[in-house]
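Box 3.1 A note on notation
Throughout this textbook, protein chains are presented in two layers. The first layer is the amino acid sequence; the second is a token string describing backbone geometry. Keep the layers aligned when reading.
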Amino acid sequence: MSVDGVCSWGGGFLRRGCSRVAVGVCVYCGEPFCADHGTVRQDYYEVCQRKVCLAKYADVDAHQRWLEAHRFANNTSMCAQDGCGERMQHACQRCRLRFCEQHLTDRAVTERRLEGEVRVVQLMCPHCAARRTLWD
């Protein structure tokens, strides 16, 4: 798959970017990168070497492992929070795991939609609420 453009790595205020031929476009920041400044991962998942983009990639991987580790509690109708023995009641609107009332809180978040940014309130577990700082 060919990518138009040149690598933008290192570019900034009064600085030019790398300018090598781009091999991918980062799924997180949308910037093109060369073979030295990014990786085309499995299933053509393209991630540049910017700190925030690498942190988001690591967060998605850690989140998937966390989900797998906590699904068992929901399979037995229990709250997915570590160490909680209460029955599940409501689903987190981010991870879709179910929790007791004590482990869900309303959080105001900004969602990017076709009509622009919209401020909404979502029912969220502590794990998903902690992840929001990276993604906002």
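The first strand starts at residue 24 and ends at 25. The radius of gyration is 19 Å.
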